[in-house]
Amino acid sequence: MGKNILVVADVRHGALRNVTKEMLGVANQLAGGGSVHVAVLGHQVDVPDLGAAGADEVWLVNDEHLANYTPSAYRKAVLEIYQKVNPQVILFAHSAVGKDLAPVVAMRLGLGQISDVTDVQFEGDKPLFTRPIYAGKAFTKVAPKGEPYVVTVRPNNLSPYDGAAKSATTHDVSLSFETPDLATVVREVVKKATGGVDLTEAKIIVSGGRGVKSADGFSPLKELADVLGAAVGASRGACDAGYCDYALQIGQTGKVVTPDLYIACGISGAIQHLAGMSSSKVIVAINKDPEAPIFQIADYGIVGDLFEVVPLLTEEFKKV
Ligand code: FAD
User: Fold this and answer.
1) Eight-state DSSP code of residue 160
2) How far apart are CA 6 and CA 142, in angstroms?
3) 183-192, 206-215, 253-262 — which is least confidently predicted?
4) pTM
5) Residue 233, ligand 1, Cβ within 6 A
6) What residue stretches are annotated with the Electron transfer flavoprotein alpha/beta-subunit N-terminal domain (predicted)?
7) Nearest alpha carbon, ligand 1 atom 45
8) I need a surface site. Which of 52, 196, 224, 246 has the fewest CB within 10 A?
9) How would you class 105 by CB atoms within 10 Å of its CB: exposed for 0-12, middle for 13-18, buried for 19 or more?
10) What average pLDDT is seen over the chain?
11) 288 lines ligand 1 (CB under 6 A)
């Protein structure tokens, strides 16, 4: 029998992030012919045609109290939609917001949660979710004990819906937010200038480590990134040394990324860094030490000085 699946759209700066479409792909598999619902929470969010992306019903909460994420207001909105949809599975992105909101909702509803899912397989109609353990050193398969349950989905790992476009019905939900629902209020958001491409959704990342030696040492990496349309990332070593902003940090205590191509420049490959990038589809490592651990997980390794190798790559990519 078909199931009701609720996807909580991942919204950033008033637009839906790609991972929402990836969640809709999983949701259609989990629904088994049932209904796929999407909750879009925010203020004046630009909502694309979600029927084409696999949604049957869209639940839109457009409220100024949701203009910026706060756990208490967003929790109220999700719980309200949960009551209307009565889903067997709730999907969140494993993003900054999803990582915060999903456990709050799971706890309120007394549900179990499977976090940071990178793949789903089915044994009959029973899903088996793949997720990393030991900071990404190994992967495990987890089956939910019962329904309903909560899942968070790692961006850039699962395929979007590729079935026939649906004609999604949109429901406008209005809520009244009182003081207890607004335990915190965001007064101001100060944006950091971290470049154009969103690191966690980037298809290509050029990343620098302590081997870049200075803030200026990132310049050749930025030039390569510009040519490739890539985002620039960093190891914690580079951030701690003050060569770049912590917003660029990839790893266990930074961002988790799964680009199609990850180019690691002057990064040794500590386990805490691998935790954030080892699921990248193709990894290229540039390091002058042939024994650097990064070469153990790299698909392609270049032993050499990054200040010589990176400009050469940039020139070659310019020709393509
Ligand atoms: P290094 O280990 O110093 O490596 C620099 C590399 O550059 C070397 O391999 C060297 O051979 C190479 N090199 C030098 N010059 C050149 C050149 N000219 N050309 C080519 N190669 C060159 N780290 C993270 O990255 N992300 C995290 O989220 C993170 N979280 C952590 C959490 C905890 C609790 C702890 C304890 C640590 C964490 N770390 C994290 C730190 C991690 O352990 C490493 O210290 C860090 O990743 C090292 O950064 P690095 O590879 O840039 O520097």
Assistant:
1) P
2) 20
3) 183-192
4) 0.88
5) no
6) 5-189
7) 237
8) 196
9) buried
10) 95
11) yes
Hey, is 192 helix, strand or coil? coil
Measured in whole angstroms, the distance separating CA 75 from the mean position of its chain's CA atoms is 20
ipTM above 0.95, yes or no: yes
Q: Which percentage of the chain shows pLDDT scores above 90? A: 88
Q: Which of 235, 288, 294, 302 to probe ligand 1 with, by most ligand atoms within 8 A of CB?
A: 235
DSSP 3-state of 61? strand
DSSP state of 31: H
Rounded to an integer, what distance in angstroms lies between the CA atom of residue 115 and that of residue 49? 28
Looking at residue 195, what is its pLDDT?
A: 61
The ligand 1 atom nearest the CA atom of 292: 9
Whole-angstrom distance, CA of residue 27 vs CA of residue 103? 19
Separation of 6 CA from ligand 1 center, angstroms? 40
pLDDT reading at 194 higher than 80: no
- The residue written with tokens 């860094």 in the block is 273
State if residue 253 touches ligand 1 by the CB under 6 angstroms criterion.
yes
Q: How would residue 114 be classed by pLDDT, with cut points 50, 70 and 90? A: very high
pLDDT band of residue 235 (cuts 50, 70, 90) is: very high
**268: Cβ below 6 Å to ligand 1?**
yes
Measure the CA–CA gap between 5 and 120, rounded to whole angstroms: 15
**Beta strand 15-16 with 89-93: parallel, antiparallel or unpaired?**
unpaired
Q: Kindly give the number of the ligand 1 atom that is closest to the alpha carbon of 209.
A: 52
Mean pLDDT of 252-275: 96
In 3D, which of 54, 44, 39, 49 has the Cα closest to residue 15?
44
Q: Is 249 in the pocket of ligand 1 (CB under 6 A)?
A: yes
Q: Could you tell me the two tokens for 83?
A: 């009551």
**Residue (of 41, 30, 11, 291) closest to 148 by Cα position:** 30
* Amino acid, single-letter form, for residue 294: I
- Which protein residue's CA is at the shortest distance from atom 4 of ligand 1? 268
Please name the residue whose Cα sits nearest to atom 9 of ligand 1: 268
Q: Are 133 and 142 in contact (CB under 8 A)?
A: no
CA 276 to centroid of ligand 1, rounded, Å: 13
